[in-house]
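User: Fold this; tokens only.

Assistant: Input:
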Amino acid sequence: MKALDKKTKKIIMEFQRSEITEYFVYKALSRFAKLEHNRMVMKKISDEELRHYHIWHSYSGEKVKPDNIKRWFYVVVSAVFGVTARPFAEWQRNLGTYVCGGKAIHDIQVRRCVLWNDWGKALEIGIETVADEIRDVVFEDCDIIHVSYAAMDVTTHDRATCKNILFRNIRVEFDDDFTLPQCLDRNQHFYPLQPWDKERPFLFTLSVGQGYVTVDTARGHIEDVSFENIEVTARQTRRVH
């Protein structure tokens, strides 16, 4: 392999540092999770982070230590307040209303994420698109290791025109068990399954409509959504008519 220049090597080693830090963070978080399911999720994410670290190591040839300040900050916060995760979709869908005052949202980049999607959609724009426009959004180099309803999505239930959206270098894993998630009230909470609860997740969905959270009277549009180098690992996938 061609020798790396100093600048490129430095960037790769920064990636390594991020991956090994997150490996230790998720490994520690798995110990604080009360539910066995959550512990398994955290453990799988930590394993993915370690795998990514070794990939970068194969390029740099250098060992990199974790960022211990960041590592222990997250561990201490989780120990005090509990292991929680605020879904990216919630931040994304409220961005127009609370951050940008309903104006245009643009030039958003989401890169190098490992996602375990237990509810809704993993990489999503929507559904409360209370903005004039959402454009120039890039989702890139992400691993979705569990999917609930859809891996990738653009949905507008308000006035925003969503355009120039790119999903690139996305790796998706579909489980053998496609059972839809349910809200659990307690440990060992069981619920009856209906035939439609076994529907397989979608790889992607695009939708314009309205729902119980709709604010605007006008409906938006979806334009220029691109998918590049999408890799899917699955025994079977959902049929699309």
